[in-house]
Specification:
mainly alpha; elongated
Length: about 90
């Protein structure tokens, strides 16, 4: 339990920040999952989905919701899957 007014406010602020980060993290995961499934199914929209996923990962990393290296790693792996799918399709 908080002993001071400032500690009480910090608990409220941290809770609001946590909710905001949770929704952004969830949205990013959903977009990445959608892109991965589009790539694996060979859909026409796969390239656009990968681009949207990369943008979402960059935004999350910029906001400090995920680490920048984790975002780069996920983008790299997703791009590698897309390139492999495109190469096998030709």
């Amino acid at each position: 339990m908080a002993n001071t007014k400032s500690a009480t406010k910090e608990i409220r602020v941290a809770g609001a920040r946590q909710e905001r980060n949770k929704s952004m993290r969830s949205l990013t995961k959903t977009i990445v999952h959608k892109a991965e499934s589009a790539v694996s199914k060979g859909e026409e929209s796969a390239q656009a989905d990968v681009k949207a996923a990369a943008s979402s990962l960059d935004k999350a990393a910029g906001a400090g919701i995920i680490h920048a290296n984790a975002a780069a790693r996920k983008k790299s792996r997703l791009t590698k899957k897309l390139n492999k799918a495109v190469a096998t399709k030709k």
